[in-house]
Design a protein that fits this description.
single chain; alpha/beta; Immunoglobulin-like; TIM Barrel; 3 domains; 8-stranded parallel barrel; 6-stranded antiparallel beta sheet; 16 helices; about 20% helix; about 20% strand; elongated
C-alpha cells in the first residue's frame, strides 16, 4: 500500500465525500465507533492502495481532509468498535463499508454469503465502494412541469423493462436511462397523455444472495443500499457519460415534454436484510444507530417491512440522511416527487409505534421538499400498520380499497353499489378531512405488485413458480374472476369478454374522482403469464413486448386520458357537496336504469350492477353523463332530459360518436360517456 497519503482534520459537515476544488473532505456518522479508517482503492475498486485513520471526531461524526484528492477517487471505510450483537453492535474492521452518502457505487454485490459468520474474512476486494463525484451539469432552462394534482395522470414504469425490447430504441440504449429518454419513448409518453412517470426504485441496490444462487435478481429494486447513487445497471456506459449525467439527461428530456419524474424510494429497510444478511454499509458503520432492534434481544431486527430489517428514522442522524437524500434528488437531479414504499415505517419512533411524526413533520416544513409531490404506500406489517387515509394534507396515498372495489364490481365479487359509488367519488370516507381533496386518493386497477390488467382477466390463480418459492409467494387473494379458461388466449368469445372487461376497468379508472395511476404495459395488453409477484424476473416475463402490443387498446387509453383532460367534471378539485348515499343532486346525481334516484335498497344490494352518474359541471363546465352496466346482459336506461352525445362506448370503442335521447340500451359489461348535445 502507498504511504504518501495523509489525512488532515476536516469538518463534520457536509456528510459524505465532498470535493472543494483543492481536496476532498470525508465525514461519516458513527457515534458508537472507537475508530474509523478511510480506505483508498484503484479505479476498479479491487485493490486497496491506502489506509488512512480518520483524525477527528465531533458530534458523533468522524472526519478528515485529503488534500489534492480529486473526483473519481474510489474509497470505503473500516470501522472499529465492539462486536457484541447481543448489545446491538456489529463492528468488524475486516469489512470494508460503503459510505451512506456515496453518489456513485463501484462494484456489484454478488451474494458472497459463503463468508457469513466468518468475521475474519477481509472483504476489501469484493466490497461495494463509493466514488467521489463532482459533476457539473448544464440544466439550461429546465423547470419543473409542476402539474396540478387535479390534472395529474401517473404512469408506473420500470426503467429497464420499459425499453428493453423496444424496437425503435437503439439496442445499446435499451433498458437504460438513455433509452427511457429516447425520442421514440418521449413521443409515445407525450402522445399517451400521461403527466408523470413513477419509476420503480433507481437507488443503487444489492440483490439477495438467495436470488443470486437461483440466477435471479431483485428486479423491482426494493433492496436499496445507497440512497444517493443512481443504479449503475441502468446506465448505458456511453463514453463521456456517467450514471449521474445520464439520469439527469433523462429527467431533462422528460421535462421538455411536460412530464414529471417521480421516484419510488425505499427508506424503510436496506439490502443488509436480517441478522444473517451481509455487512455492506450501515450494519458495520453503526448497527445500533441505523436499525430498529428488538428491545428484548438487540441481536435481532424488527421486521415491520417483511424484508428483514427496518431503518430507524426515529434517530436524528438517520432522519438527516434520508432528508439529505431527498433534497439531493430534488435539487441536484431535478425529480418532481416521491412515492414512499411502506411509508408508515418511516414514522415509527424509537418506541416502534407508527404515530411518531418527526419524518412527516420534517418533510412538511422543508422549503425544498414541501413543494414536490409526496405519495405514500400507506401500510406496513407492523402493529397498527394499515394507515390508509391517515396522512396529512399535501400527501397522496395509494388506495387499495379503490382497486379491490372496482375489480370486484366488474368481475362480480359482490361489492355493494354504495361501495362502488364511494370509491368512484374519491373515497370521502377515507380522505375528506383536514382540508384534503379527492386527489389525495391515488386510484389504480393494477400496479407492479400483483397481476397486470391482462392477467387479471385471464388467470384465476397465480403462476409464480419461476420465482423459486413453489408458488407460495405473492398475493393469495388475487381479486380475479373465474372466466372459464386460464391462459393468455382462448376462444373468440372469451377474448371478446376479456377485452370488454379491460376497457371497462380502464374507463372506470380514468373517469373516477381522484388521481389515476396506470401500470406501464396495461395499455398494450402486457402479460406476465400469470405471475403476480414478478419482483425477481429480469426477463421477458416483465419486459414489455412492444412487438406484440395491442395498438387498439393503447389508442383507447389515449382517448380516455384525453376525455378526462377535456372535461373537468371528471377530475374535480373539490368534494361533491351531498352527504351520505346518495350524495345529493346538487353537483352529482346517482340514477337507476329507470331514470329515478337509486333507492336505499339498491345501495346495499350486492347483486345490482347498473348505475347512471350525472356530474354537473362547475362554472359553465360541461355536464358529464356516465352509464355503467357490469351485468352480463344489455340494460335499457331512461336518460335525463335532453339530447346526449355519446363520446365513448367501452363496449364498442370503434363506433363513431352518436346521439341518444329518451331511452338507450347499454351493452353488457360496458361504460358509456355522454355530454349534452349542445356542449359537444
Amino acid at each position: 500500500m502507498q504511504a504518501e497519503y495523509r489525512l488532515m482534520p476536516g469538518t463534520d459537515y457536509p456528510l459524505g465525500a465532498n470535493w472543494d476544488g483543492k481536496g476532498v473532505n470525508f465525514a461519516l456518522v458513527a457515534p458508537h465507533a472507537q475508530a474509523v479508517v478511510l480506505c483508498l482503492f484503484d479505479q476498479d475498486g479491487r485493490r486497496e492502495t491506502a489506509r488512512l485513520p480518520m483524525p477527528s471526531r465531533e458530534n458523533g461524526v468522524w472526519h478528515g481532509y485529503l488534500a489534492d484528492a480529486k473526483p473519481g477517487l474510489v474509497y470505503g471505510y473500516r470501522v472499529f468498535g465492539v462486536y457484541s450483537p447481543q448489545h446491538g453492535h456489529r463492528f468488524n474492521p475486516n469489512k470494508v463499508l460503503l459510505d451512506p452518502y456515496a453518489r456513485q457505487v463501484v462494484g456489484t454485490y454478488l451474494g458472497q454469503d459463503e463468508f457469513r459468520g466468518d468475521n475474519s474474512y477481509d472483504t476489501a476486494e469484493i466490497a461495494l465502494k463509493g466514488k467521489v463525484v463532482h459533476e457539473a451539469y448544464d440544466w439550461g432552462d429546465d423547470r419543473p412541469p409542476d402539474i396540478p394534482a387535479s390534472e395529474t395522470v401517473i404512469y408506473e414504469a420500470h426503467v429497464k423493462g420499459f425499453t428493453k425490447l423496444h424496437p425503435l430504441v437503439p439496442e445499446p440504449l435499451r433498458g437504460t436511462y438513455a433509452g427511457f429518454a429516447h425520442p421514440s419513448i418521449l413521443a409515445y409518453l407525450k402522445n399517451l397523455g400521461i403527466t408523470a412517470v413513477n419509476l420503480l426504485p433507481v437507488h443503487y441496490r444489492a440483490d439477495e444472495a438467495r436470488l443470486r444462487k437461483m440466477g435471479l435478481s431483485n428486479y423491482w429494486g426494493y433492496s436499496s443500499i445507497a440512497f444517493f447513487a443512481p443504479a449503475c445497471r441502468y446506465w448505458s456506459g456511453r463514453e463521456g457519460s456517467s450514471p449521474v449525467s445520464e439520469f439527469r439527461d433523462m429527467v431533462k428530456n422528460l421535462h421538455s415534454q411536460g412530464i414529471e419524474v417521480l421516484l419510488d424510494v425505499v427508506y424503510n429497510h436496506t439490502a443488509e436484510i436480517d441478522e444473517q444478511g451481509p455487512t455492506l454499509s450501515f450494519r458495520g458503520i453503526d448497527n445500533a444507530l441505523y436499525y430498529h432492534l428488538k428491545k428484548d434481544n438487540p441481536e435481532l431486527y424488527e421486521n415491520w417491512t417483511g424484508c428483514g430489517n427496518c431503518f430507524n428514522l426515529g434517530e436524528p442522524r438517520v432522519l438527516q440522511l434520508v432528508m439529505d437524500s431527498l433534497r439531493y434528488w430534488v435539487e441536484e437531479m431535478h425529480v418532481d416527487g416521491f412515492r414512499f414504499d411502506l411509508a408508515p415505517v418511516l414514522g415509527r419512533g424509537r418506541n416502534g409505534t407508527a404515530d411518531s411524526s418527526a419524518f412527516f413533520a420534517a418533510l412538511m416544513q422543508d422549503p425544498v421538499l414541501a413543494r414536490v409531490k409526496l405519495i405514500a404506500e400507506p401500510w406496513d406489517l407492523g402493529p397498527d400498520g394499515y394507515r390508509l387515509g391517515d396522512f396529512s394534507p399535501g400527501w397522496l396515498e395509494w388506495n387499495d380499497q379503490y382497486r379491490d372495489t372496482m375489480r370486484s364490481f366488474w368481475l362480480h365479487q359482490w361489492p355493494t353499489l354504495g361501495e362502488f359509488a364511494q370509491r368512484f367519488a374519491g373515497s370521502s370516507d377515507l380522505f375528506r378531512h383536514d382540508e384534503r381533496a379527492p386527489t389525495a386518493s391515488v386510484n389504480f386497477i393494477a400496479v407492479h405488485d400483483g397481476f397486470t390488467l391482462q392477467d387479471l382477466v385471464s388467470y384465476n390463480h397465480k403462476h409464480n413458480f419461476p420465482n423459486g418459492e413453489e408458488n407460495r409467494d405473492g398475493n393469495q387473494h388475487n381479486h380475479s374472476w373465474n372466466c372459464g379458461l386460464e391462459g393468455p388466449s382462448g376462444s373468440p368469445e372469451i377474448n371478446l369478454l376479456r377485452g370488454r372487461l379491460k376497457r371497462a376497468l380502464l374507463a372506470t379508472l380514468f373517469f373516477s374522482q381522484g388521481t389515476p395511476m396506470l401500470l406501464a404495459g396495461d395499455e398494450i395488453g402486457h402479460s406476465q403469464n400469470g405471475n403476480n409477484n414478478a419482483y425477481c424476473q429480469d426477463n421477458e416475463i416483465t419486459w414489455l413486448s412492444w412487438l406484440h402490443a395491442d395498438a387498439d387498446l393503447a389508442a383507447y387509453v389515449r382517448r380516455l386520458i384525453e376525455l378526462r383532460r377535456r372535461y373537468p367534471a371528471l377530475r374535480r378539485k373539490n368534494w361533491f357537496t351531498g352527504t351520505g348515499l346518495p350524495f345529493g343532486d346538487k353537483d352529482i346525481s346517482w340514477l337507476a336504469p329507470d331514470g329515478g334516484p337509486v333507492s336505499d335498497e339498491r345501495w346495499n344490494d350486492k347483486s345490482f350492477y347498473c348505475l347512471g352518474i350525472m356530474i354537473c359541471g362547475n362554472n359553465q363546465e360541461t355536464t358529464c353523463l356516465l352509464l355503467l352496466n357490469a351485468s352480463a346482459e344489455d340494460v335499457m336506461f331512461t336518460l335525463p332530459q335532453g339530447r346526449w352525445q355519446v363520446l365513448l362506448d367501452s363496449g364498442n370503442p370503434d363506433a363513431a360518436d352518436f346521439s341518444i335521447e329518451g331511452e338507450a340500451s347499454l351493452p353488457a359489461r360496458a361504460i358509456r360517456l355522454a355530454v349534452p348535445h349542445q356542449d359537444w
